[in-house]
Specification:
Helix content: 40-55%
Number of domains: 1
Shape: globular
Order of helices and strands: HHHHHEHEHEHEHEEEHEEH
Strand content: 15-25%
Number of strands: 9
Length: about 300
C-alpha cells in the first residue's frame, strides 16, 4: 500500500517529539522508560510479533514456549534501546561515541596493511547503528544502507549520518553510482561495511542459516573476489554499560577457480559465524526481518 505524505509527516513529527523527550531525560532515564515502552508494544501494539515468534520458534525448535516468549520480549527491549541510543548520539561528542566501541584494532590494521581496502561483513545485531558511527570515528568507512520508506525520516537519518562522519551508500537510489563509490572506497584502501543478514530475494544464494535455507546477498563476496579486498566478519554484543564489544574475525578467501563456488563458500562461513553469535545472544538479533521470506 502506497504511503501518503500526511502519514509520513505524522510519523516524522512523532519521532521528532520522541527525540526531544529522550534528549531531555538523558540516557539512564530514557533506557528505563524504553523498557516499559517495549513491553507495552509487545503486549498491546504487537508490531510483527507473529513474525518474531515464528522466526524464533523455527530457529530454536529445542526451546519451550516460555523461553521463546522471553527471547521475543527481550528482542523488543533491545530494539527500543537501540532507538534511544541513536537519538542520543546526536548530543554526544565524537570522543564519547568512539569510547563506546571495544574491539581488537590489530585485526583491522593487519587487513588494511595489504593496501586493498577492507570489507566488513556485519549484521543487524547488537547496536549496529552505534557500532557504525563509533567505528567511523577511527577509520574512513562507507556503509551500504537501505532507503527508509518514510522520505522525511530518510532525509533526517541521512543528514544525521553525514553530520557524524557516516559515509552512506544507497544502492536503491543509483546502483551504477553506488558501484563506482564501492570500488573507489576499496581502491583508496578504505573500509566498506555491509549488513548481509536480510532476505536477498531471487537475486541471492540459498544457504543454511539457523536450520533453514535463507536467500543470502552475494554482493560482499562478489566485491571481495573482484577487488582482492580482504573480508572480516564483525558482530558486536551490547554490554550492560551501553558499550559494544565487537568480535572481528578474518575470513580466509577461497580460490577454487569457480567464482560461484567461492561466493558460496564465503557466504556459508558468514552465515555460520552469524548463527553462532545469534545462538549466544538471541535477543540481540533483529528477528523482525522476514529473513526466510523468499523460498528456493
Amino acid at each position: 500500500m502506497r504511503r501518503t505524505k500526511l502519514q509520513n509527516y505524522t510519523e516524522y513529527s512523532v519521532l521528532k517529539m520522541l527525540i526531544f523527550m529522550i534528549c531531555l531525560l538523558g540516557r539512564t532515564a530514557s533506557q528505563f522508560l524504553g523498557k516499559m515502552i517495549a513491553l507495552i508494544i509487545y503486549y498491546f501494539i504487537p508490531i510483527r510479533k507473529k513474525k518474531v515468534l515464528e522466526n524464533i520458534t523455527l530457529s530454536f525448535p529445542e526451546k519451550n514456549k516460555k523461553d521463546i516468549q522471553l527471547i521475543a520480549k527481550n528482542t523488543y527491549r533491545t530494539f527500543i534501546r537501540i532507538l534511544v541510543d541513536i537519538f542520543l548520539i546526536s548530543k554526544m561528542s565524537d570522543k564519547d561515541i568512539e569510547k563506546l566501541l571495544i574491539y581488537d584494532e590489530d585485526v583491522i590494521k593487519k587487513a588494511l596493511s595489504k593496501d586493498r581496502g577492507l570489507i566488513l561483513m556485519s549484521a543487524h545485531f547488537g547496536n549496529w547503528e552505534l557500532s557504525a558511527l563509533a567505528f567511523a570515528k577511527k577509520y574512513p568507512v562507507a556503509f551500504i544502507v537501505a532507503k527508509q520508506s518514510n522520505d522525511f525520516i530518510d532525509k533526517m537519518l541521512s543528514s544525521f549520518r553525514i553530520k557524524k562522519g557516516f559515509n552512506a551508500i544507497d544502492f536503491q537510489r543509483d546502483a551504477k553510482m553506488s558501484f563506482r563509490s564501492i570500488v573507489k572506497t576499496l581502491r583508496k584502501n578504505q573500509i566498506l561495511a555491509i549488513l548481509g543478514d536480510q532476505d536477498a530475494g531471487e537475486h541471492g544464494i540459498f544457504l543454511p542459516f539457523l536450520g533453514r535455507l535463507a536467500s543470502t546477498p552475494k554482493g560482499p563476496a562478489f566485491f571481495a573476489i573482484h577487488t582482492g579486498s580482504p573480508i572480516i566478519t564483525a558482530f558486536g554484543v551490547s554490554q550492560k554499560d551501553g558499550s559494544m564489544k565487537m568480535k572481528f574475525e578474518e575470513l580466509l578467501m577461497p580460490n577454487t577457480g569457480d567464482e560461484k563456488k567461492d561466493i558460496e563458500i564465503i557466504n556459508t562461513i558468514y552465515n555460520k559465524r552469524l548463527e553462532e553469535a545469534v545462538r549466544e545472544n538471541p535477543e540481540q538479533w533483529f528477528w523482525f526481518h522476514r529473513r526466510w521470506n523468499t523460498r528456493p
